């Protein structure tokens, strides 16, 4: 009897021990599991916490543009060669199958990493769309020139070969990069014609000067023809690309009997110059179909600021470019007078007076390119010219810059057949640059800042706008 009691007592004790052991083991497992989910259950986002469970951590979908212009889902965020499409990308939560965008969330993509800020709601997911990064023509051009220089003196010509070299100058609008000397790698094929790059403008657009249908650097083929700047020459207004009086003779030349009576009238841009009519017609016939690749923001400077006289009627007047290039030898890319920065109506700057975005090179740009600054005695750029810089063509052609009026004789700057900047006749070996003289016409345009290019810029492999 005692034996039976003892056996039951042992069974009871074993049951109690088993229950305690199970409880103890269960407590350990429960504690471990709880600890695990405490770590992953609360995900710190910015300064708040959201109770995400592990399956909720699928927070991002990535889409990358393909060659067809549509987006394909991807497994990783691209680290380079792409930009985030901020208009298309968004974060939001699903509500009965519909994604409700959260406009308070901001997305930043830098150096191949995405930062998402201000997520405060559970279930938020981000949808990121990436476009292939487009390198603009201006950006690409600058990467192709390992040597970048600046110039401080402009009283000598640049005659050396400057292939692989580009220069810079700082202006009131930023930094511009320009070519000088004799580069062999600033060629562009655009619109069925060859051009030379003058400079990359401050806004990234690219200023080109016409060179013809071949890469020949001299001869009449480098210009679209010849023309007077203005048929009428007997008033300050006729130094302008646009004038305050209509031309009083429609061919040949004349002084004109009607005179302007104020500076505001002289620079009122009420009428087209003779040369502007030539350029507008050429643009209509040859470049109109390429208009979406030509900048309507960048303009053309026909600086009519003056340093003596009153700049209207027949008052003897000396203009700003003549002072900069003759006396101070400091050419400038700035065009400070809004009335003299010729732009089309849609431009956010300038006078909005042009019908088409086409013009001429300025005398200052010619000086930057390597033509010597003006000499006081000759009123030209140097005495021997420069046939070793890229703007030399062996032809006489117009710039857009006024020089002076002496009585009823009005002069604009031109590039002489010797490569000189000529603001007036200085000797029997040089031609007048009187506005009624017939000289060459070399159009200047600006490619848009967002065009892309291929090629290396040489005459055999010129930059081609794509």
Can you describe what's shown?
The chain is of the alpha+beta class and 466 residues long. The protein has two domains: 54-132, no CATH class; 138-465, no CATH class. It is built from six helices and 32 strands. Strand 26 (397-406) and strand 27 (409-415) form a beta hairpin. Strands 11, 12, 13, 14, 15, 16, 30, 31 and 32 form a nine-stranded mixed sheet that branches.
Provide a quick synopsis of the model:
The chain is of the alpha+beta class.
Given the helix and strand composition, which structural class is it? Answer: alpha+beta
Mean pLDDT: 86
Shape estimate: elongated
Quantity of strands, as a count: 32
N- to C-terminal distance: 108 Å
CA-atom Rg in angstroms: 36 Å
- Proportion of beta-strand residues: 25-35%
Q: What does the main sheet amount to?
A: 9 strands, mixed
Number of domains: 2
Uncertain runs: 1-8, 28-57
Q: Helicity level, as a percent range? A: 10-25%
Count, helices: 6
């Amino acid at each position: 009897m005692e034996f039976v009691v003892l056996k039951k007592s042992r069974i009871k004790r074993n049951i109690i021990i088993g229950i305690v052991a199970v409880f103890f083991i269960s407590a350990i497992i429960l504690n471990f599991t709880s600890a695990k989910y405490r770590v992953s259950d609360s995900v710190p986002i910015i300064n708040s916490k959201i109770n995400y469970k592990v399956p909720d951590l699928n927070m991002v979908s990535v889409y990358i543009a393909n060659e067809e212009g549509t987006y394909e889902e991807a497994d990783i965020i691209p680290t380079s060669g792409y930009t985030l499409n901020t208009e298309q990308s968004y974060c939001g939560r699903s509500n009965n199958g519909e994604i409700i965008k959260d406009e308070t969330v901001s997305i930043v993509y830098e150096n191949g990493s995405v930062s998402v800020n201000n997520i405060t709601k559970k279930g938020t997911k981000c949808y990121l769309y990436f476009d292939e990064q487009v390198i603009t023509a201006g950006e690409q051009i600058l990467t192709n020139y390992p040597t970048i220089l600046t110039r401080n003196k402009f009283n000598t010509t640049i005659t050396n070969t400057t292939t692989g070299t580009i220069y810079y100058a700082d202006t009131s609008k930023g930094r511009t990069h320009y070519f000088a000397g004799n580069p062999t790698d600033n060629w562009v094929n655009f619109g069925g014609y060859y051009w030379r790059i003058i400079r990359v403008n401050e806004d990234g657009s690219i200023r080109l000067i016409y060179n013809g249908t071949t890469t020949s650097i001299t001869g009449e083929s480098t210009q679209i023809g010849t023309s007077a700047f203005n048929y009428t020459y007997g008033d300050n207004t006729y130094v302008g690309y646009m004038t305050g009086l209509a031309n009083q003779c429609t061919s040949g030349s004349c002084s004109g009997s009607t005179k302007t009576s104020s500076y505001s009238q002289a620079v009122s841009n009420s009428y087209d110059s003779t040369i502007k009519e030539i350029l507008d017609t050429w643009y209509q016939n040859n470049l109109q179909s390429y208009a979406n690749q030509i900048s309507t923001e960048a303009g053309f400077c026909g600086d009519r600021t003056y340093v003596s006289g009153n700049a209207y009627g027949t008052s003897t007047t000396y203009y700003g470019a003549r002072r900069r290039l003759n006396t101070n030898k400091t050419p400038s890319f700035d065009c400070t007078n809004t009335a003299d920065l010729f732009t089309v109506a849609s431009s956010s700057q300038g006078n909005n007076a042009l019908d088409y975005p086409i013009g001429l090179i300025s005398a200052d740009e010619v000086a930057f390119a390597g033509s010597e600054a003006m000499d006081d005695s000759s009123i030209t750029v140097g005495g021997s010219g420069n046939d070793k810089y890229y703007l030399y063509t062996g032809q006489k052609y117009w710039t857009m810059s006024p020089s002076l009026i002496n009585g009823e004789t009005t002069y604009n700057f031109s590039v002489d057949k010797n490569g000189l900047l000529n603001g007036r006749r200085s000797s029997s070996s040089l031609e007048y640059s009187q506005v009624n003289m017939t000289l060459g016409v070399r159009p200047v345009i600006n490619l848009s800042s967002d065009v892309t290019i291929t090629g290396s810029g040489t005459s055999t492999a010129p930059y081609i706008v794509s």
